[in-house]
């Protein structure tokens, strides 16, 4: 199941995120599952857009230190060491999700 998530300036599909579970959402990459809070997801998307901690803090109206704390919590959850690895992880998790959704649709609607 998926829903549209509003990140600044765009809508994006997030995997396995029923609207009633907005506080915890699952990203899936391969067989691995990762639970991120709504704020962590938001910050991860902004990292993937290339924003610095300072710019993320300004956009979200929070302190730089709070962003750093979120980033420190996100990276171990997704096994990333750098911001680039985090962005790549996000892209891969979304691709894996879309491939699974396409396969499900094909099975439900055979030619």
UniProtKB/TrEMBL annotation:
Leader peptide range in chain numbering: none
UniProt cross-references to InterPro entries, sorted A to Z: Sig_transdc_resp-reg_C-effctor, Tscrpt_reg_LuxR_C, WH-like_DNA-bd_sf
Keywords: DNA-binding, Transcription, Transcription regulation
Domain HTH luxR-type residues, every copy: 29-94
Name of the protein: LuxR C-terminal-related transcriptional regulator
